[in-house]
Design brief:
The structure holds two protein chains of two kinds.
Chain A lengths: L19 H8 L13 H4 L2 E2 L6 E7 H6 L10 E6 L6 E8 L4 H18 L5 H12 L5 E5 L10 H7 L10 E2 L1
Parallel strand pairs in A: 1-6, 4-5
Antiparallel strand pairs in A: 2-3, 3-4
Helix pairs in contact in A: 1-5
Chain B lengths: L6 E8 L2 E8 L2 E5 L6 H23 L8 H9 L13 E4 L2 E3 L1 H4 L12 E4 L7 E2 L2 E2 L11 H17 L5 E3 L7 H12 L3 E5 L6 E5 L7 E2 L5 H16 L13 E5 L7 H16 L3 E6 L2 H16 L3 H8 L5 H11 L3 E5 L7 E2 L10 H4 L6 H18 L3 H12 L4
Parallel strand pairs in B: 3-14, 3-15, 6-13, 13-14
Antiparallel strand pairs in B: 1-2, 1-4, 4-5, 7-8, 9-10, 10-11, 11-12, 15-16
Classes of the chains: A alpha/beta, B alpha/beta.
């Protein structure tokens, strides 16, 4: 029996083209992981597409990427690239964090400041454009994923502080 | 350990209620839009518990229905309300036992004829007219029984128990100082609630420092007018001296305790509700105030997460001390429940009140924080949209808004 592989003299298939998210990550000096895999395992399943044909085009663990350089900063956790058929690719940003008090809201807003500061830097221009594309398609760009069972009451000072920065109160799932 | 028996009232197809199956806790709160049957439900609870006391009261006041159940139901719930019961579709069960409103419209021969449930109705402000209390007979057929009886109780309290006293609030032997302080601070200020017996008529007035004459009822704030009959009802439930509660009364229903009050005033009233629970009453509230549910939510979370009496005190803004510590400990042992009444749907148990719930009724607390929630979402939408636009475009838009009209 021949062990020669069928079509062994064919050319290796070309590497799939990098997604816009992956290219944007590279431009920012970061390495995107495939699909949602940069998102910590226990939270990964809670980041979902509203429809089954939503594709995850790459992800970033911002917290890990900047831990050494900025150990004391309030670092945002994850960025995820998404694509829906017939639409422009976009980026959403997810921060799993306990949701319990005014103190937590302030921490989240500090993390948001940090992330937006990054997105304003020239090397993050492409990631910023993908983030803006998210809003242009009517989706929230930044999401606080609740990791504790306590929530924030709508209409409370905490909820209003979040709204003023474009965030919804924390939820257990991020469905885009 | 003794197992605490839960009480359960189930109604089907009664007035606007499609189906309600409510298991009562030590504190039960019902919420829902107008005309969803909350009042009918609470009045029915009173009727199943106090059937014979109600019949005896009507008889005592020479009101006879001659065995006409429709006339009784109109006299009890309010004129025209007999139609709420449909003999083909309506159902009522109390603790699993079936009954009908027409059955309850007739007295039984039972020996238990004492009142078990004290009802403070939403229309309580009508129990005081120009500062004077009204007795049962001063109302008409078709005025709800719960209003007539509450008014009569307050009348009796004022005419007899408090008749000789000038000042009703503050009173050193009524309610703990911890409870009196917020009432002073948020409801009466420096004024003192008093009985003015001039002209052979007992009228409630507010004595304001520096004023020779007491401020008449019509000049009070709406909140003071609403709160005063509630306070008198609570005085009745919390007798002076060493008696902690009325012996026969087990239940207290308060409809819309928040009526006319600023949220800080509502907090003061909620302390009184907790006091009733501490004294062992089962309390049932109907409310349109998210402040009431804020309290329930917090207590539910404390119980789940191992919160302590000091967390309760912090929530209620109470300093550590014998009474406040006891109150905090007592309420953490209580069973709290919340039900949502809506049109055309079954009544829902939303006791967890979790803003993280996938059920909108629970996450938005039966619609009480629905508008606040939508406000936050729409503001966040606008922030999102604006921030994703180029800065120059944003500046132009802002400049247009700020520019005066030419």
């Amino acid at each position: 029996m021949s062990t020669k592989k069928q079509g062994g003299n064919r050319k290796a298939p070309a590497a799939p083209a990098l997604s816009a998210f992956e290219q944007a990550a590279t431009a920012a000096g970061l390495t995107a992981a495939p699909g949602k895999s940069a998102v910590e395992n226990r939270y990964r399943g809670s980041v979902e597409g509203k429809t089954a044909d939503t594709r995850f085009t790459g992800s970033l663990d911002m917290d890990a990427a900047f831990k050494q350089a900025e150990p004391e900063a309030n670092r945002w956790d994850f960025g995820v690239g998404m694509h829906k058929p017939g639409k422009q690719e976009f980026a959403v940003w997810v921060e799993p964090h306990s949701a319990s008090s005014l103190g937590e809201v302030k921490t989240i807003l500090a993390k948001l400041d940090w992330l937006q500061g990054k997105l304003d830097q020239p090397e993050f221009r492409q990631l910023k454009a993908l983030t803006d594309a998210c809003a242009a398609q009517g989706h929230r760009r930044f999401h606080w994923m609740a990791t504790a069972r306590v929530g924030i009451r709508p209409g409370s000072r905490e909820a209003n502080m979040l709204a003023a920065r474009g965030l919804n109160p924390p939820s257990t799932r991020v469905v885009i | 350990m003794a197992v605490r028996k839960s009480n359960r009232l189930s109604l089907q197809q009664v007035g606007p209620i499609k189906a309600a199956d409510v298991v009562f806790g030590d504190l039960t709160v019902i919420v829902g839009p107008q005309a969803t049957g909350k009042s009918i439900f609470l009045q029915t609870l009173k009727l199943v518990l106090d059937r014979d006391h109600i019949h005896d009261t009507f008889r005592h006041h020479s009101v006879s229905f001659n065995g006409d159940s429709g006339a009784f139901l109109g006299g009890y719930y309010g004129k025209g309300m007999a139609a709420a019961w449909n003999k083909d579709g309506s159902q009522l069960r109390w603790n699993g036992k079936q009954a009908t409103l027409p059955d309850l419209a007739k007295p039984s021969k039972g020996k238990q004829r004492q009142e078990k449930l004290f009802f403070i109705p939403a229309q309580r402000v009508m129990s005081l007219t120009r500062g004077m209390t009204q007795n049962f007979g001063q109302f008409d057929y078709g005025d709800p029984y719960t209003l007539r009886y509450f008014s009569d109780t307050v009348h009796d309290l004022l005419q007899n128990e408090f008749g000789a006293k000038g000042e009703l609030f503050p009173q050193p032997n009524r309610l703990n100082d911890t409870l009196r302080k917020p009432i002073t601070q948020h409801l009466y200020g420096t004024a003192k609630l008093a009985v003015d017996s001039k002209d052979f008529t007992k009228r409630l007035v507010l004595n304001v420092p520096g004023h020779k004459e007491g401020l008449p009822y019509t000049a009070w704030s709406a909140g003071q007018r609403e709160f005063t009959p509630l306070l008198l009802g609570l005085y009745w439930l919390c007798p002076a001296g060493g008696t902690s509660r009325r012996d026969d009364i087990e239940w207290v229903v308060i409809e819309e305790p928040e009526m006319g009050l600023h949220p800080q005033g509502i907090e003061a009233v909620l302390l009184l509700v907790l006091e009733l629970m501490k004294r062992g009453y089962k309390v049932v509230l109907s409310t349109h105030s998210p402040v009431v549910l804020d309290l329930v939510w917090a207590l539910q979370e404390f119980k789940q997460l191992g919160g302590t009496e000091s967390d309760v005190r912090k929530l209620l803004n109470l300093r550590a001390g014998g009474y406040a510590n006891e109150l905090g400990k007592a309420v953490l042992k209580k069973d709290l429940r919340v039900y949502f009444f809506s049109r055309d749907n079954e009544v829902k148990d939303i006791s967890r009140l979790s803003p993280l719930s996938d059920e909108t009724a629970e996450a938005e607390w039966g619609g009480l924080v629905g508008f606040a929630s939508r406000t936050g979402q729409v503001i966040a939408d606008v922030v999102n949209r604006t921030e994703s636009q180029p800065k120059a475009k944003r500046r132009n838009k802002a400049a247009k808004v700020e520019a005066p009209a030419q």
